Amino acid sequence: MRLHAARLPARLDSAGGLSPLFDQDRSRWDTRLATQGLELLERSAAGADLTAHHVEAAIAAVDASAPSVDETDWSSIVSLYDRLMAIAPPPVVALNRAIAELELRRGDREPAREHFEAALALARNPTERRFLEKRVRVCECPPGPES
Q1: Under the phi-then-psi rule, with left for phi > 0, alpha for psi from -120 to 50, and beta for the rest, what region is 111?
Q2: Same domain, 42 and 109
Q3: 143 and 81 share a domain?
Q4: pTM of the full predicted structure?
Q5: 117 belongs to a structural domain
Q6: Each residue of 6-58: pLDDT tens digit?
């Protein structure tokens, strides 16, 4: 939870909308909380059990440890999502794994749109819905220099 909470200061833009991970200013992340989260993850990894919570924390740790989106170890994140799928395969995990593959950034707009539409069907609040609706619209637009 501390690894996720560390990102909270950068999760909303100036208008109060969700800021996608790729657009977040990582300098706004709470480094104290991230460090505490990494320490707690290391302590929890000492046992023999591996739960979905361990894997989710490991995904957050890979992300929190990267100084930028470009320096994030995306192949490790995809591998961790594969592991999470084997332990606890709810639809949101499959969606997050698909997003981790960066389909939209690779230019695979149709599969990305399908994943965002699936997420939209599961959105829990108006802020999430607006964010996902925007992502669907981006996928429907022809590629350009801003995508």
Answers
A1: alpha
A2: no
A3: no
A4: 0.63
A5: yes
A6: 998 998 888 888 888 888 889 999 999 999 999 999 988 887 888 888 898 99
- CA triplet 138, 146, 7: central angle to 5 degrees? 75
Quick one: 137 exposed, middle or buried, by C-beta within 10 A (0-12, 13-18, 19+)? exposed
Distances (CA, A) of 49 to 41, 44, 92: 13, 9, 23
Q: What are the b/e assignments for 27-39, b being 16+ CB within 10 Å?
A: eebbeebbeebbe
15 and 57 share one domain: yes
Asked whether 113 and 140 are in contact (CB, 8 A), the reply is yes
47 to 60, 83, 101: CA distances (angstroms):
19, 18, 30
- Please state, in angstroms and as integers, the Cα–Cα distance from residue 60 to each residue in 34, 44, 114, 117, 129, following that order: 9, 14, 24, 24, 23
Shared domain check, 107 and 60: no
Does residue 109 sit in the same domain as residue 82? no
Identify whether residues 16 and 76 lie together within a single domain. Answer: yes
Q: For residue 84, is it within any domain?
A: yes
Q: Tens of pLDDT along 112-131? A: 788 788 878 877 778 778 87
Tell me the residue range of the domain where 140 lies: 103-147
Kindly state whether residue 65 falls inside one of the protein's structural domains.
yes
